[in-house]
Amino acid sequence: MKRGRYTRRAFLGATVAAGATLTLRRAWPKAAFLWSAPQATDSRIEIVLSEPIGRIAPEIYGHFIEHLGGVIYDGVWVGEDSKIPNIGGIRKALVDAMREIKPGVVRWPGGCFADAYDWRDGIGPRERRPRRTNFWVDNREWREVGIVPQKYEPNHFGTHEFIRFCRLIGAQPYIAANVRTLPASVFHQWIEYCNSPPGSTTWAEIREANGDREPFNVRYWGVGNESWGCGGNFTPEEYAMEFRRFTTWAVPDYGVGLRFIAAGPSGRDLEWTRRFFLKIAERRAFDRLWGWALHHYSSFSGGEAVNYDATGWYELLQSADRMESLITAHWQVMGESDREHRVRLVVDEWGAWYRMTTNIHPTHLFGQQSTIRDAVLAGLTLDTFNRHAEKVGMANVAQLINCLHSLFLAHEDKFVRTPTYYVFAMYADHQEGQAVRAIFSAPRVSWTDRANRPQLFWGLNGSASVKGNIVTLTVTNPHLSEARVTEVLVRGATIASARATILTARRVQECNTFENPLAVVPREEEVPIRTPVLVYSFPPASVTKLRLVLS
């Protein structure tokens, strides 16, 4: 892809020329983001309490860490003897920040790394653990990088460290097993090591000798990763046979209630889904299949994380918005064989993927910066999952730190939260809520693609959930320069009070850095209710949460 050369100055000039007034104050007072907006309302959101969708599983707000670049080493793991504040070797700043957003689940160790990983290398005294060549060692971006932990795996972060990380942050563990290079018996031993009662088996005794007498009670197990590609290059029929072999009959439950997740398609490969489900149906193996993993990464022709123009803004959001059609299309195909819809969708890799031009350090493979565009992408994606809460049982943004669509960037003792982190913080109130239908009406966004063709994009979108008399409404406004002055009402109820949390930016290309960690942060404000219908102006290029108290 050709790198976009649209400068920040040119982009801002084009934005202002398009009609936006971006007069901003340095501090963040109550009315910090000023824009030109009509006085009359032009949009409407109606929340329909009588039309529930389903419970929003906390696991939808899940995360993913892989032994890839700076995710583990220089990210999650700093070592017990490090001068960087840590809890048993795990970066303390990361633990503290994660606790605030109530993470539902964390997936590990991969990714493609999972199908090259032997879990037995990562237990026992760290000084005795073997060093192995990392799956990603031959990536061309690393040709000039020497012998570092990111390339030659020291196995300092293994099963015990991962479980401790999950416990520290209050998340469920989700472990992806090696199907490509290890037999099913090794997978079964891993489950036994994690879940068998104290003193019951040799593996339980080894676990105790390694520091943990009590079982880990790992419920979620991925059977391989991307088995159509780096996970074995299987056909759907071949992989269905492997899945049955790994999960049928011989896997004790240990009272945990195991949930096996099969490696599903990349994007819109409906035939992979159809053929796999047909094979599973032949042997009536749906009782061992809890989740079907779907991967979707968003990209655009310019490929830059920060240096993008208006077309690059809308191209990326349009790519992300395909998530909705992917969910509905695969769900329909799954139902052809699984008519009772016993199997849930698990979107265990999603996010933006750019050129590697803003990585913090050469060892941070696929590292990239994060702007308000990534925050809007995260918001519209999480809203999509909420709107399909009856279908989506889990989702995992890729990845947590120092890679792709990260919530955090870190290097040595430096640490910063990205705009995407704040979206997860804002949306945490949805967890365990009852998703309900919300009807959005707003002028559509007109834009022009790189082939000079006119395009349209929705004007406002979001999701709503209910807990008691509290409605959480989250909304993204994708328009670069126009606010949406919106009537908000709850059908059959009265809004007694409202409070807004708004995430936007002075410049849409602005990002949080080690030097300026608070460039893009949310602000809060009370929302006055002067009429029977609440009226709120959603800023351009923003993510907003409205907390509505019903009387």
Description:
The protein is globular. Helix content is 23%, strand content 26%. Helix 8 links the parallel strand 11 and strand 12. The protein has helices spanning 8-17, 92-101, 159-169, 184-195, 202-209, 236-247, 270-282, 310-337, 372-387, 419-427, and strands at residues 43-55, 62-64, 86-87, 90-91, 105-108, 132-133, 152-153, 172-177, 220-223, 259-266, 291-298, 344-352, 392-397, 408-411, 414-417, 434-441, 445-448, 454-457, 461-467, 470-477, 484-491, 495-503, 523-526, 534-538, 542-550. It has ten helices and 25 strands. The strands form six sheets. The protein has a nine-stranded mixed β-sheet with strand order 23-22-25-20-19-16-1-21-24, with helices on one face. It has an eight-stranded parallel barrel with strand order 2-5-8-9-10-11-12-13, surrounded by five helices. Strands 3-4 form a two-stranded antiparallel ribbon. Helix 4 packs across helix 5 (202-209). The protein is of the alpha/beta class and 551 residues long. The chain has a domain at 57-134 and 153-355 and 386-411 and 426-432: TIM Barrel.
Write a concise keyword list for the protein shown above:
alpha/beta, TIM Barrel, globular, 26% strand, 10 helices, 25 strands
Give the spatial strand order of the biggest sheet: 23-22-25-20-19-16-1-21-24
Radius of gyration: 24 Å
- How many helices does DSSP assign? 10
Strand elements, count: 25
CATH class of the domain at 57-134 and 153-355 and 386-411 and 426-432: Alpha Beta
Report the average pLDDT across residues.
Answer: 92
Q: Which structural class fits the helix and strand makeup?
A: alpha/beta
Say what the CATH topology of the domain at 57-134 and 153-355 and 386-411 and 426-432 is.
Answer: TIM Barrel
Low-confidence stretches: 1-38
Share of helical residues: 10-25%
What is the CATH architecture term of the domain at 57-134 and 153-355 and 386-411 and 426-432?
A: Alpha-Beta Barrel
What would CATH call the homologous superfamily of the domain at 57-134 and 153-355 and 386-411 and 426-432? Glycosidases
